Amino acid sequence: MKNFLIAGLFFLAGIPSVKAQQVVAKTNARVLNEFMDQRFGMFIHWGPVTLRGTEIGWSRNHQVAQNDYDSLYKEFNPHFFNADEWVKTARDAGMKYLTITAKHHDGFCLWPTKFTSYNIMNSPYKKDVVGALANACKKYNIKFCIYYTVLDWYDQRYPVHNNGKPSDPNPDMPKFVQYMKDQLKELVDNYHPYMLWFDGNWEKPWTLEYGKEIYRFLKALNPNLIVNNRLGKGQHDQLGAETVGDYATPEQKIGKLNMDIPWESCITLCQQWAWKPNDQMKSLKQCIQTLASTAGGNGNLLFNVGPMPDGRMEYRQVKRLREIGDWLHKYGESIYNTKGGLYTPDSILAATRKDNKVFIHLFRRESVVLKLPVITGIKVTKAYFLKGAQLHSQQSEKYISITLPDILPDINDAVIVLEMDKNTEAGPVVSR
Ligand code: FHN
To answer: By the 8 A CB rule, do 300 and 264 touch?
Structure first.
């Protein structure tokens, strides 16, 4: 986090720091640091496509004929939708922010936008889903965030249509970008999102220049609005010369440890982003170890659920999320407000740190003694399971050795606390 501050300060002072030459988070470093301290958010992919149980956007003109797909909104009436229930599910899972697909690639809008009739108010449901979630997030102290795609396979002004449909005969990107600005102003002015999660920047019609134009437009509306890195061009899992935005977004994978740039992995609880009947769901072990390994890499986890067409989240998914929340209720000190490291995450463990404490997230017991490389100049003064028993440890010139009990206190992630003789947050990260 310190590095964001340095880069941010140099940028503010107009002195290009080494890191600033690549990309500088234009959002205030303090705001970004606070975002990264939260570590865990809910991603929600939802829309009329759930009536077919196929993938949002991608199944249009593929598994679902285009006209059929585009007419689904006429049947969409999620009478069990309850924004408070969704937000309480996120809260009880230990999630600190929530990101809803206000508009995905299929162009359907979950709020009463004035700029297209293809929106929720013209479905039988006729209620503002985005507004209800924004209000519920405020009520339960969850940061409200919005997903908005820059590609729109429905709108005639956008030149490309999905899955092989010929491009539109009369595209008009300048008009389409103005449409985007009109909608983004609606979303920012009416719902005050904490963060905007852009997507769809890989198609040819979208240019780096459009990305910069929209970023400037948004920063003029709210300088503290956090924006992910999918407004410009370039790789999603890194910040580079073509990046526009504040943080990297590795997808369906745990990002590589990076102490210099903010990043957030977006990963699905099941296989599909939008709801699918009998979709394969991750085990509790997979969920907790994914979260610990993401935090161990100094990143956030945006964990996706796909609610059903009637507005409910599947009970089995809600139960899984509550199990994660129960784990975080006990061990959250080792995730929230920590930094990644001292040790690079691997298949056996991950590590996070705060002040003079290092939290070792032990995923499985390989042997009686856990050996960790010594970090020069840092000594262990105490070792114990977080919320648990004391542990015997000793430190040689090369290794810290911790004697483990036969049975670990948590089969998914047993958290060991190493209290050190000094603050460890500025320390190096080493691989075992
Ligand atoms: O095409 C989308 C996909 O549907 C989903 O929204 C993910 C979430 O990050 N983003 C795109 C694929 O990279």
So the answer is: yes
